[in-house]
Amino acid sequence: MELLRFATAGSVDDGKSTLIGRLLYDSKQVFEDQLEAVERSSLARGDEYVNLALLTDGLRAEREQGITIDVAYRYFATPKRKFIIADTPGHTQHTRNMVTGCSTADLVILLVDARVGATEQTRRHATIASLLGIRHLVLCVNKMDLVGYDRARFEQIRREFDDFATRLEVHDVTCIPISALEGDNVVDRSAEMRWYVGPSLLHHLEEVHISSDRNLIDMRFPVQRVVRPISQSELRDYRGYAGQVASGVLAVGDDVVVLPSGFQSRVEAIETADGPLAEAFPPQSVVVRLADELDVSRGDMLCRPHNQPTVSQDLSAMVCWMAEAPLRSGARLALKHTSRWTRVVVRGLEYRLDVNSLHRDRVTGELSLNDIGRVDLRAQVPLFFDEYRVNRATGSFVLVDEATNATVGAGMLLRQTG
Are 207 and 198 in contact (CB under 8 A)? Predict the structure, then answer.
């Protein structure tokens, strides 16, 4: 079955954890012992109902404060599709956790409290989802039971959000009125909102088309490891290159070029633990054998001779900064891109993006915690990359502080203009 990764986002107390709990409960994905534990925790907290949010708010601090802090992942399946859910925090302080949870998502569910409407954090999360290249956005207007299931209120919120979304690069926006607490339009259609003629949330998640979202044109295969089992005499001439297909389709018999050397060869075999394949596509992990013995090592990349990525040491990217200490020009960091590591120096900060108004602040000289801005970098060795909006796999990277080994930034590469 096809796998859909989706994340929840929105302001604090908009009901993200409750929605996921309701989704799991109504789709019969909660075991009896889990439900009993939630019932006990709800009673201990003094809740007058079974608080389904406790299915995802696993940290003690989360349960005490009633907010999501860390990213919680949950897995479930229906007869039509498998799902991985990332329940991300809504508080501004934990925006970096939201970026982490959404970085691999195919779809984002953005919750809005029907009583409040879209907030600054709603717009922030929608903008981040757009920057991360997420093509499907579901606006769930939650707590409709608290506004009497008023259609006019839902339509007002939908129109206001649609006006904002036209400024973003998200072309598939679906609006659904729900009540996560009562279960309206989550798994089953609501009897209280007969005026709504669209699908329930689960039905939409099962049917949304994501197959064409992956880049199956530009073949990119970053080499993670050279497989050479020289201890087995019968395999003494074996040389394979292990890795995950980042994009495109790799088939036996294809002509390929190895970067950065530029040497060309032909794919002789594609192998997995389950046996050989005629072709491989993302995100399959395979071992590739070439017809010629070439000098190929970790960090190199296989691609097609007439369809190659950009090769450059000069990088321009949108960076989400995740460290307490600000990012300034002249900073030296480690950068990991696909399977390749290098050191980089920050050559300049072009602007900081105000994710609420989309204004570009060109005066600021630094990026603070949770800021997003356009940064110019100079790498120690060339990288092989594509523009992020075209290829998320080869257009993204992380920045690491070598002194602490902490991940301090996430980047999305932009088109080379020079």
Answer: no
Between the two ends of the chain, the Cα-to-Cα distance in Å is: 43
Query: How far apart are alpha carbons 371 and 354 in whole angstroms?
Result: 8
- Read off the tokens for 124: 């922030």
Domains, the chain, ordered by start? 3-213 (3.40.50.300), 220-303 (2.40.30.10), 310-413 (2.40.30.10)
Q: Which tokens belong to 355? A: 């994710």
Q: How much is the CA Rg of the chain, to the nearest whole Å?
A: 24
At 340-375, the pLDDT tens digits run 999 999 999 999 998 777 889 999 889 998 889 999
What DSSP state is assigned to residue 188?
B
- Candidate from 85-99, 114-128, 252-266, 366-380 with smallest mean pLDDT: 85-99
Instruction: Of 132, 122, 73, give the one whose Cα is nearest residue 99.
Output: 132
Task: Write the CA distances from 16 to 70, 72, 109, 185, integer angstroms.
Answer: 13, 11, 9, 15
Q: Would the pTM of this model clear 0.85, i.e. be above it?
A: no
Question: Taking the alpha carbons of 218, 212, 6, 150 in that order, is the dihedral positive or negative?
Answer: positive
Question: Taking Cα atoms as reference points, which of 162, 163, 189, 164 lies closest to residue 177?
Answer: 189
